Amino acid sequence: MTLGNYFENIYKGLKSLAAGMRLTGLYFVRRGDSLTQEYPNNRGTLKLAERFRGEVVMPHNESNEHRCTGCTACELACPNGSIKILTKFIINEEGKKKKAIDTFVYHLDTCTMCNLCIISCPSDAIIMANNFEHSVFDRTKLLKVLNKPESKIMAGVE
Amino acid sequence: MILSIYNFTSLTDKFHNFLSTHLSDGIVLTTELIVAGLLVITFVAVLAMVLIYLERKVAAYMQLRLGPNRVGIYGTGQVVADVLKLVLKEGITPDGADKLMFNLAPYVVLSTCMMALAPIAFGNGLVLWDLNIGVLYITSITSLGVIGILIAGWSSNNKYSMLGAMRSGAQIVSYELSAGLCIISIVVLSGSMQISEIVNSQTDGWWIFKGHIPVIIAFVIFIIAATAELNRAPFDLAEAESELTAGFHTEYSGMKFAMFFLAEYINMFVLCAMAATLFLGGWMPLHIGHWTAFNNVMDYIPSPLWFFGKTFFIIFIIMWFRWTFPRLRVDQLLDLEWKYLLPISMVNLLAIALMNILGWHF
């Protein structure tokens, strides 16, 4: 190690330390970008990441139609059997017999939010919602039916 | 009345005279010692709570969090709650531990660091014991604390504690050298080891302004060495949560753990107060050369306020270190001391001695 290297080391070390302290110093002074959410106080303005997995929901449009064909791909993908699909046969406009869902049973109490059902769904019928306030006093309330009563499959979804 | 010039000795003399008129000499001395002791204990308890709250808030702000904010106003009650929790917890002594040593260690650590508070001047005349070797006394007493840490590590009968204590010993022994050399450089400039004389030598300007670059280098090295002596991050190898769970106090719980915790924060205060006294003028207000008007305005700020302002400024810098830098490896730690800090501070001390002989400072 030459003498030049020695002083260069000191200079480099001090420079990098100063860079680090500058960043934390800026964080200390700028209070606006704090990441903490004071949750129970800001329920109205809570900001959650879009990828946050709260529960599985099935979106319906305004004429009470969903996109689920009842293919049971999600039921097969679910690692712990939280999804159970009961199917029925309906007669469509052309007079043909067709398979459709009767009830889409979703066990929120056993769901691990692994997202595999959403990935496996070929028709994007189910999505993950951001809602996470699931606490209830009665466990049976966590057994949910995702398709709304009297809902039908959207036209054009096969 | 110019506040910073107000000498607290008149107050303590009044108290002494009041006692002397009513009691005999021996009882007066005992009473005064008890009062001083109680004041120190109260001060230490309040100080530790303030420092813990400060530390948590500073840490949170630097990590884009909010810190304690639920108990009390802005979370100030959190510290009280934590202290109550520690007081109520059971202090467990492990079966395999050396019972006497295990229970003795926290008292050794706490009493040594409280002894170091004696010669510190908190204000003009506000000092418990202004002895003529004040600086030497503080350095020697703060290095005694490592004995308590070694006792704690050895008596716990736990390999993590032992490793932590040995590391702490190695660290304090090596970093004391450069810290000592930096203190000596100020002793060279002020010509005295008495705290009051060191403060008085800075009446016309603090040493960090009067001493040019060598004193600034000494100040930086002293702050680094002090952080290392305190076993705080980035030099927290003695505790290193990720490697040694909690280092030398792994086996301690309840009040005995709280005493180590307390000692850590008091040590931080003592070393920061030392840095403030040596380099930033202690309780001395900011005086610039012959600007009489400016100096008079500064004199209106009470001297304890100056002292605590400077000390807390340095404490903030040390906290800033802790929440910015990653921990050093053992070899890096020893490299830094023996290859960089020690040679630099030796050359620096020579430069300061030369500067003092030739009268190159203001």
Structural account:
The complex is a heterodimer of chains A (158) and B (362). With 158 residues, chain A is α+β, with helices and mostly antiparallel strands. Chain A folds into 2 domains: 3-35; 55-153, Alpha-Beta Plaits (2-Layer Sandwich). Helices cover 23% and strands 21% of the residues of chain A. Chain A has 3 helices and 7 strands; from the N terminus they run αββαββαβββ. In chain A, the strands form 3 sheets. Chain A has a 3-stranded antiparallel beta sheet, with no helix packed on it. A two-stranded antiparallel ribbon of chain A has the order 1-5. Chain A has a two-stranded parallel sheet with strand order 2-7. Chain A is elongated. Chain B is mainly alpha-helical and 362 residues long. Chain B has one domain (3-358). Helix content of chain B is 69%, strand content 0%. Chain B is built from 14 helices and no strands.
Furnish the topology, listing elements before pairings.
The complex is a heterodimer of chains A (158) and B (362).
Chain A: H1 3-29, E1 55-57, E2 65-66, H2 73-77, E3 83-91, E4 97-107, H3 116-120, E5 127-129, E6 143-145, E7 152-153
Parallel strand pairs in A: 2-7
Antiparallel strand pairs in A: 1-5, 3-4, 4-6
Chain B: H1 9-22, H2 25-62, H3 77-88, H4 99-115, H5 134-155, H6 159-190, H7 195-200, H8 207-210, H9 212-229, H10 241-244, H11 254-279, H12 292-299, H13 303-322, H14 330-358
Low-confidence stretches of chain A: none
> What's the rounded overall pLDDT mean of chain B?
84
Strand content of chain B: under 5%
State the order of secondary-structure elements of chain B, H for helix, E for strand.
HHHHHHHHHHHHHH
- Strand coverage percent of chain A: 15-25%
Tally of individual helices of chain A: 3
Q: How many H/I helices of chain B?
A: 14
Which consecutive residue ranges of chain B, at least 5 long each, have pLDDT under 50? none
Largest interface: which pair?
A: A-B, 16 and 15 residues
Specify the biggest β-sheet of chain B. Answer: none
CATH level 3 topology of the largest domain in chain A = Alpha-Beta Plaits
CATH architecture of the largest domain in chain A: 2-Layer Sandwich
CATH class placement of the largest domain in chain A: Alpha Beta
